[in-house]
Amino acid sequence: MIRFPDYSLSLTPTYTPGISLTQKLWVTIGFIGFFAGVIAISGYDHAGVFLLTASLILISISIAGFSFSLYHHQKSGIKNNYTWSRSLSNRGIVSWVLALWITGLYILLYFFPNALGLSESGNTGLIRLFDPLSEWIKHKPANQWFVYGVFYTLAILLFGVKFLRKYKGNRYQQIRTVSVMFFQLCFAFLIPEILERLNQPSMDLKNMWPLNYYFFFDWHLDKLRSGGTLGLFMLGWGIAMILIISPILTYFFGKRWYCSWVCGCGGLAETAGDPFRHLSDNSLKAWKIERWLIHGVLVFALLMTGLVVYTYITAHSNILFLNSYAIREWYGFFIGAIFSGVIGVGFYPLMGSRVWCRFGCPMAAILGLQQRFFSRFRITTNGGQCISCGNCSTYCEMGIDVRHYAQRGQNIVRASCVGCGICASVCPRGVLKLENGQVDLFERTEVNIK
Asked: What is the pTM of this model?
């Protein structure tokens, strides 16, 4: 039978190329590491610890090697080819399987840690495999939050390497990615664990209220107040972050100083969630839902915090028909666990990488209001050079229709913008630019078409 070439008049490829032999090798190494981890969970002994260690090492090598192979020979520039034609990045079967797997893991970690081996009489299963590492770092057996912290930090570090390779020619993306990797490794993981080893009050110094919704809980305030000089410093630092440091930094740099450079939630979204950023809905309907949801969560956080502070000062838990303990339990379950954890990360492959940041984070809501009305930060546009390709809107993880502003030469000042700069990075004409200039705050959104 004679085969004729499949010629196409399409300006873009009509097929999705496979991965190279080298990339298949890295994927194979990753699968070997994954199955080694599955075998390790089935029992605990020296072989199990060895298999888990080997599993994490092989998976790390696989991700780093695959990233290097994927982007090594590519020139600097936009690298989002075939995004909509791959099962992983276009809600295909691979996306659904991954979403279910991540969601299931979060449910086990948050609500059923015993199923993972957590036990007061001695850990078993997955959690017991992390006991040697936990004993080495903080002289205590592991718990589900230690295991979660290890996985979370590894995800940001490993996929951060992939992100660095992908945007190797973009200085802004390089610096901010290194920043979130550093803050996650040092401030969110190592420093709190080491302080716990030293029997000192431990706290993620970058995680502030209301994202750290339990900061004003009685048990947390008592721990800081009884923690000596260090505890009082942490208490003062937390309050200063809320009232002084955060507003000043937001005035000069917008909410990006936190959401894209420091925050662990944003760090995971920018690194591990990068393949799914284009899945964020940028419709007007989604924007309306976003505004109601995120500000609704903020009101809930303010109400809950006011009640727990009132209870802490007066020792009365009932205010009218509200019980402060019940309210904080509801907030912790629905917002702190279900929304920010299970949905916020588990739905990456289906709804984009900033589900929590966009629809639920009360910290993002506060910073967004400050950015919208009292910040010098904005994204300037040159409407005369915009070719309406739509890359900026497609890859905006916050669902902002950036093209709408670019076509009109209008500066972008949106409360939801996290200043990640990807819209500027994927623009083929250099239309967009992130700025902090000394412009009149009330003139930032004027149309500027010349």
From this structure: 0.90
